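Protein Record: Sequence and Backbone Structure Tokens
======================================================
Tokens: labelled as protein backbone structure tokens, with as many entries as the chain has residues.
Task: work out the structure tokens from the sequence, keeping to the layout shown below.
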Amino acid sequence: FFFFSSRRRHTRYIGDWSSDVCSSDLVGAYIPLGPEGMVNAGYMKLNNTSDTDITLHYITSPVYDAVQIHSTIQKNGVAKMVHAKNLVIPAKGSVALEPGGSHLMLMGPRRNIKEGDEILAIAFGDHEKRYMLKFLVVDPRKQSAQDTQHQHHNH
């Protein structure tokens, strides 16, 4: 399913990066369910508690033909998506991939994606380090309804 080189020590699982190289975690990784066969987006927050920046150069997934890191820029009052060369998680900092900002574009699904699926991806960093990402597919309509119910109960 995934190919890993014989240098197994280079594979890190985000959420359990308690390695000698870095300490980081992945928070709330999700993919909103979209129309079948269409491009999806991936969102998450990456925290880096190490003393060095973590640079992710590219991401692959067995479920998609291509995964790209995108950022959104404002130019003359118009939002435009651009393909980012890499994603830097600063030392002692975090990066949020969220709607309207930086995010992952997941293109060419190789199978039908459904609510509740867990989608795996591998992020490739400096010095051949690999990081496993796990996303949960959620139905945004149900999530909005749940958010509304939670807000209603907090009145």
User: Anything to note?
Assistant: Confidence is low (pLDDT under 50) at residues 1-23, 145-155. The CA atoms of residues 51 and 62 lie 32 Å apart.
